[in-house]
């Protein structure tokens, strides 16, 4: 009898021990699971924060680049506008490549008294441009009304009572009343009229007509043009 009681007591104690161990194991599993979950949550939160930070940095960089591009575009536009305004306000050579020949007030048998302009020796067909912006007031043969000695000629009216004349042309490509810009093509050089060879006769006048010419070289130099 005593032996049976002892045996039952031993089995009960063993069962209790197993139950305790199982309970401890389950508790450890729960605790471990919670720790793993917490670690996963922390990693996820850290990754999300990094992604948000990276996105914010990318957006800030894009905004900075856009602002820089807009500033550059505005600067280029302002520079182009300033250059256009400067060109419109400036004077320039009526032909690009030339050799100076007969000068203003030079005496000789080619003219009624003295030479009324500056000659630019160039080949026939050379591009002739407006030395300054203005309105064409004369264009045609017979010196555009100034006489046959000039051949084909053009006169442009500028501001402040200034006119420019281009003579001995082989071709005229503008008409009276046409507004031209500084540097715009107006004609081709030639050898028409009273001319000893192909060249451009260029005058600066105080009126549209013959007899009002001033020294064109001195005038251009006063406008910053090297002649």
Explain the overall architecture.
- The protein is α+β, with helices and mostly antiparallel strands and 227 residues long.
- The chain contains two helices and ten strands, in the order αββββββββββα.
- The protein folds into two domains: 89 residues; 124 residues, Glucose Permease (Domain IIA), CATH 2.70.70.
- Strands 1, 2, 3, 4, 5, 6, 7, 8, 9 and 10 form a ten-stranded antiparallel sheet that branches.
- The N terminus is likely disordered.
Helix and strand run = HEEEEEEEEEEH
- The CATH topology of the largest domain, please? Glucose Permease (Domain IIA)
CATH architectural designation of the largest domain: Distorted Sandwich
* Percent range for β-strand residues: 15-25%
Relative helix content:
40-55%
Instruction: Determine the mean pLDDT.
Output: 82
Query: How would the global form be characterised?
Result: rod-shaped
Q: Low-confidence spans: pLDDT under 50, at least 5 residues?
A: 1-7, 19-24, 28-32
Write down how many β-strands occur, each being a DSSP E stretch of 2 or more residues.
10
Task: Output the structural class.
Answer: alpha+beta
Number of domains: 2
From the alpha-carbon coordinates, what is the Rg to the nearest angstrom? Answer: 47 Å
How large is the count of helical segments? Answer: 2
Give the C-level CATH assignment of the largest domain. Mainly Beta
Pfam family, one: Peptidase_M23
Organism: Streptomyces coacervatus
InterPro entries: Cell_wall_metabolism_enzyme (IPR050570), Dup_hybrid_motif (IPR011055), M23ase_b-sheet_dom (IPR016047), TAT_signal (IPR006311)
Protein name: M23 family metallopeptidase
